[in-house]
Structures
1.
Amino acid sequence: MWKDILLQSKQSSNLVGIFLDNCKVKVGNGHRIKFWTDKWCENLCLKDAFPLLYRVVVDKRVSLSAMMVRKEEAGEWVFQFRRALFDWEREEVIRLVNQIEAGPVIRCYLEDAIVWKALEFRSPVSKRIWVKHVPPRVQFFGWLAWKGKQKTAEFLYRIGVLPAGASVVCCLCKSGAESLIHVLLLCLVAWRVWYEMLRWWKVQGALPASVEDILEWWSGVGLTKKERMMWNAIPLLVMWSLWKHHNECLFREVVPSVDGITDLIKLKMAVWFKEVFKEHMFSVHDFVFNLERIRFSLGGGYSE
Ligand SMILES: [Zn+2]
């Protein structure tokens, strides 16, 4: 799962920082955790918390599990320093030992893992982002959109990366200023994509004008559990697709197309959920053109 997100992060270095700030290491057997440089202990990086000791320690890349083996053999924590320590450095070692003794316990039967902090404090909105059956990269994008983290031309202009006079006009509608909220919601192209999704599901209503409000609005009240699985994937997929389309138009000179985006969203949904609801034997064609039939056989109904 994390491979996908890390790949996404690699393509844009500013995302790596956001990614690292928002995940934490969950200690298992300690094999994959670097004692000094991973944030495994109370969300602290020991290298930063004890810089004086880190400077003189020999094995800077030692794993947590190797440190535990040494501790079991010696009956206490063993650090290899390249010279004898001064008194004030020994005091630091005592502080370090207190810190790690208060930290998490090693569990030999579990693999080490990385978890999103966001998963631990689930707000109603974050529940709409970490949605089952949606690829992690699409969830990750939804989270960035919720937090307003994607960089648009308008943002780059504001912080002085783009020169004065550079175009910050939205490349989809050629009129609005290209902010994230514009590309994902307020743009005429975005607006038409969202409403095509509502039409596809025969849902009527006015959409709110912020990512957070849309995710909250998109509750799927009245739908069956299986219908809701599909319904919940839509806002993430719409935002992801709009952003990708925006980038293609901006960098590859693709001509903006509402039908192109909506067809792709429906096809993607069909491919994902054909797999999820294998026992129902849906065709992709039914998914795109005859959603009512599928909803009916999932125990749902017409909402008209
Ligand atoms: Zn626009």
2.
Amino acid sequence: MEKINQLLEEFRNIAENPSKQLEKFLKQGKKVIACAPVYTPEEIIHSMGLIPMGVWGADMEIKEAKSYFPAFICSIAQSILEQGQKGYFDGISAIVIPSLCDSLKCLGENWKYAVPNIPFIPMTYPQNRKNEVGIEFTKASYKRVIKDLERITGQKFSEESLAKSNKIYNEHNEVMRQISDVLVDYPFITASQRNDIFKSAYLMEKENHTSLVKSLIEELKKMPKEENKKIKVITSGILADSKNLLEIFEENNLQIVGDDIAHESRQYRVDIKNDGNALDGLALKFSEMDNCSVLFDVDKKRADYIVNMAKVKNAAGVLMIMTKFCDPEEFDYAIIKKACEEAKIPCIPIEVDRQMVNYEQAKTIVQTFVENI
Ligand code: SF4
């Protein structure tokens, strides 16, 4: 148990101290590239000997960014810009911002003027990502990112090196899928500790994160499975890393047994096929990704995906963690809610915002949800 606590403490320390991690990398003489949500081709950055570091904003008061964004842009995009303006990312070589939603498109354009000391690299994804033309488009966008990275950092890209990084990322995907499943049998691990495991992945070199998660899995498996008296739930949304919210889950005896969170498991569902050209494999991976609000899908299969997950995991309900002003998630919510109702699975929305200080409303929603089920 001591070893488990040590590992959990390590994940927490890393997750809570992104600046310390950045400082550590810079002191080691490494070049760091910030990776904005939702899907950045980290594998390319890793393969060029650079450190990809996830930036998903922070819970903070937003002031400076308001001179660039109107108030109705999500607080993830706003707080990333605010952090850039306030110097949180000083020392970083560049930021890659994908074009997967309108807020992110604006973030990239605003970044150029608001944070001129850190170059902006756009990653433009196609809406129709599955056909031959879409895959070619993705590949061409990756090539553009590579060119910008080479110019800015002086590092070189090679196919061989990308093939190695693709394997490292696949292994990490596998281990993250495993930990999500293993944690179900050990409900003493809190929602907040679960989140630390996922959040720290953005702040470490992937091979190191893989080995830390593997150690945790090994240690957990040495223990007998716990009798589970918690209420099992599925979470869905873009981001669910607010400590205040996760504590409310704990207070109400909820256990997250699976998630459809963009910041968590959505990253790890699809592996890269390593049987050909490495860059083709990466473009193909993007074409195969699904069940996400920012990935175009006329059939909105995500709703059935969530219903199915709730059934497989025997969850008592689905908590939709809605980032305020996130259009893609709001469009999907109505469809997911309907699918859950048809399947008789309780589904509740909890609105969150990176500037939120009062969680009373969220608390009442969770309490009511628990009482109802
Ligand atoms: S939370 Fe929604 S609106 Fe904001 S960056 Fe993410 S996908 Fe875009």
